[in-house]
Amino acid sequence: MLALTAGLAACGGGGGSSNGGSSSSASSGASGSSGDIASLPAGPQQQPIAATAANTVAVTVNRGITGNMPNIPTVSVTICVPSTGTCQTINNIQVDTASFGLRVLASALGTFNSTLPTTTSNGATLAECTAFADGYTWGTVRSADVKIGGETASGIPIQVIGDLATSTVPTACSNFGPAQNSTQALGANGILGVGVAPWDCGSGCTSASTSNYYACPNGTNSNNCATTAVALNNQVANPVPHLPVDNNGVILQMPPISNSGQASATGTLVFGIGTQSNNAIPTSVQRFATNHWGNMTGSYNGRSLGAFLDSGSNGIFFSDGGIAQCGGNLGTFYCPAKPLALSATLTDANGISGNVNFNVVSASALLNSGSNFALNDLAGSFGSSADLDLGLPFFYGRYVYYGQDQAINATGTQKPYVAF
Length: 420
Fold this sequence. Notes:
Blueprint lengths: L1 E2 L3 E2 L47 E6 L12 E7 L6 E10 L3 E6 H4 L10 E2 L2 E9 L2 E14 L2 E11 L9 H4 L8 H4 L3 E5 L18 E4 L9 E2 L21 E5 L11 E7 L15 E3 L6 E5 L2 E7 L6 E2 L22 E8 L5 E8 L2 H5 L11 E2 L6 E4 L8 E5 L13 E3 L1
Parallel strand pairs: 5-11, 6-10, 18-23, 19-22
Antiparallel strand pairs: 1-2, 3-15, 4-5, 4-9, 6-11, 7-8, 8-9, 8-12, 9-10, 12-13, 14-15, 14-24, 16-25, 17-18, 17-20, 20-21, 24-25
InterPro entries: DUF3443
Protein name: DUF3443 domain-containing protein
């Protein structure tokens, strides 16, 4: 489940994770029972603040742009030609706290794509292959002003997905799995990566031998794209560190929902932590120091695991051979005969541990009605069996904080962390 160069992430939609590492149609031929959902313990009950301030934007979960993918949290993003008023707003951009940078489908941009300046490497068009848990995105790197809510990240590199001919996809890129270069595959019009890292690759891509980036000498029709080294400031950038004030992190606030699911849910993405009156971090939350990519360690059923909190995953993903999988159209989603109340332990980079609780209800029972797309107890086995991916179901009813890694680029001393 290596996402980007070294960071674990499941990217949503698409097959994600970006990240759910997995997505699924709401229809199923699998059988299953919701059992006694009333027996499940109550989940967290924090309510999101209203998305009315300049440092906020509404996050929506519903049937989505494809009409059949649960737990895809989306926002609207306005993309502008740098330093101009030439802009286009793109709806249905997935919020992904386990990846870094903005990626937008060329099909969603339409003709506006041609107005965004491309980035070059030694005179060749710069492109990127980005690996997620369930496939890859391939497309050019372009410069844009990115506006989200009332915040603006000026002149940052973004990826335009799918604006290169299919014949240009490098072999190494296609080895990551199926292409996530369409709305149907991705489950959204793009991915907004707001995790703890400032760049999507970092030092690994400053060397051509380990880079995700490619120089394409003949532009969008090139069939001989070659890996290339890319300096940090030319890599696809997380917009958060580039905001003028609220640049030290984000808070994703999702509402509490019923254990049987809901048709939709509306939360709030807040920019900045402790920078405004609406984004203070209480002393009561538990903070977990992470590595540069937002990862920790954990344990479940006595097994040691890698662990991360990923809004781009549409389920909670972990391996447990004692829980029945659904099969059929629902594949490796879990379909236990009775609802399960489970727990795991997270341990941060400083050795500090804390327990997390989550529920698992039969995916078949949750999805068979085809009417509920916000689900707080959807889970399955996907990606590496050595990982615990706490996807969007874990976020409902919680404020989840992501502190940016500011020490790595000398913009501050703050080291990366998550908290809830």
